[in-house]
Structures are given as structure tokens and as C-alpha cells.
Design goal:
InterPro entries: Aldolase_TIM, OMPdeCOase_dom, RibuloseP-bd_barrel
Number of helices: 11
Structural class: alpha/beta
Enzyme class: lyase
Strand order of the largest sheet: 1-2-3-4-5-6-7-8
Pfam families: OMPdecase (PF00215)
CATH class: Alpha Beta
Number of domains: 1
CATH superfamily: Aldolase class I
Keywords: Lyase
Organism: Shinella lacus
Length: about 220
């Protein structure tokens, strides 16, 4: 299980030295991308050159253009919303293949639905993970649902690797580990803590070793 740490505020860049050797992936969050553009990606790459970077672009159109921007800047992953068109999937997928990068399809716009991802969806090979994502605003408004954690099993049954995000921290870690997502995304539980490096290490030490390759055949 890989630990992805999400940076959503400019001040979060200050904790990057503490994440080296702990985080498996560093996420340049959407707010930071909007604030600084692709310079946020290059900055993370300079400070943590040995850690892959995910650009949380939440792309929904202009796929090839956005993919070229973030992968050229050094990102290893980017996100595309599940509500995007097949043409956008194909455009992003082609660019990702050229760069040897990967794409995560984010189901945040479908959060709470009984079934995530339409059954007939066709994803390029470079779309390596499905993000099962509980929206921040919904949680801040009082939504305490754990449906995103419960949805991991259904994604695995369909042959997808899963990136799980939303309200994850020490209090929910046991429940999350039990459903075995391939990537565990943690944001404020680390970045807003008094000792981010210590919290990140505490979480990382409890995660099982990641499995290599595709643990399930794609369907």
C-alpha cells in the first residue's frame, strides 16, 4: 500500500523535507496548481527529486494540452475526472504513454452513488488507478459517510486498482487498511498536524508492503 501525501496550501511546501523517505507519492493539490501553475510541480521535484509527483489537475477537457503541461514539468501522475468524455480519456492516455506516466481517474463527481464509473467505461492502459474520493466540502458540511471506504471492494471486483482519498488519518486507518486500496491518500491529517513528519511516518509504518504489478486482471 502506497502513501500519497496531498499538499493543498502554499505553506505545505515547508514540510517536504520531512516527507522524503516516507511518502511514496507527493500530490500537488488542485488549489496549489491553481495558485502557482506547473511551477508547483517543478518545485516539489527539486525538493524531493526521488519521490514521484501527482498533479491533481482534475482534467475534464483539453486533455492533451493539460497532460503535456504537467508531464513536461515532471509529474508522474495526473488526474482526470470520471465525467470527462471518452475523447478526453484517449487524449490524456496517449500523452501519458509518450511520457511513460500514469493517469488516475477520479470519481469525486460521483461520490455517494451506488455504482461508481459507468459500466461501459473504456479506459486506456495508462489509466492505472481509480480514485474513490470523498469530497472535502461535503465532509466540512458534516457528511460523515464512509461510503468511499466501502466502495473500494466494488472497484477491486471490477478489476481496478484503487486510490482512496477523503478524511483519512489515524482515526480511520484501520478501516482503510482492511479494504486494501493500492494508494492511500492523506492530506490534512499530516499537513495540518503539529509534527507532519512524525504523523506521516506513523501511518507509513502501519501500511502493508505494496504488491508489484497488477493485482487483478483488468476487465
Amino acid at each position: 500500500m502506497l502513501l500519497q501525501v496531498a499538499l493543498d496550501k502554499p505553506e505545505h511546501f515547508g514540510i517536504l523535507p520531512a516527507l522524503r523517505g516516507v511518502a511514496d507519492i507527493i500530490e500537488v493539490g488542485t488549489p496549489v496548481l491553481k495558485r502557482f501553475g506547473v511551477a508547483a510541480i517543478t518545485t516539489v521535484r527539486e525538493l524531493c527529486p526521488d519521490v514521484p509527483v501527482l498533479a491533481d489537475t482534475k482534467t475534464v477537457d483539453g486533455g492533451a494540452f493539460e497532460a503535456n503541461m504537467v508531464f513536461s514539468a515532471g509529474a508522474s501522475f495526473m488526474t482526470v475526472l470520471s465525467c470527462a468524455s471518452q475523447a478526453t480519456f484517449e487524449a490524456v492516455g496517449a500523452v501519458a504513454t509518450t511520457f511513460g506516466a500514469n493517469v488516475i481517474i477520479d470519481t469525486i463527481t460521483e461520490s455517494g452513488k451506488p455504482v461508481l464509473l459507468r459500466p461501459d467505461i473504456c479506459l486506456p492502459e495508462s489509466f492505472a488507478y481509480v480514485a474513490v474520493h470523498s469530497p472535502t466540502d461535503a465532509r466540512l458540511a458534516g457528511d460523515t459517510s464512509t461510503s468511499h471506504i466501502e466502495a473500494v471492494a466494488a472497484m477491486h471486483a471490477r478489476g481496478f486498482r484503487v486510490s482512496l482519498a477523503g478524511g483519512i488519518g489515524p482515526a480511520t486507518l484501520d478501516a482503510v487498511i482492511a479494504v486494501k486500496p493500492e494508494i492511500l491518500v492523506v492530506g490534512s491529517a499530516i499537513t495540518e498536524s503539529d509534527n507532519p513528519g512524525k504523523v506521516a511516518s506513523w501511518i507509513k509504518e502501519r501500511l502493508p508492503e505494496p504488491e508489484l504489478g497488477w493485482p487483478w486482471d483488468r476487465k
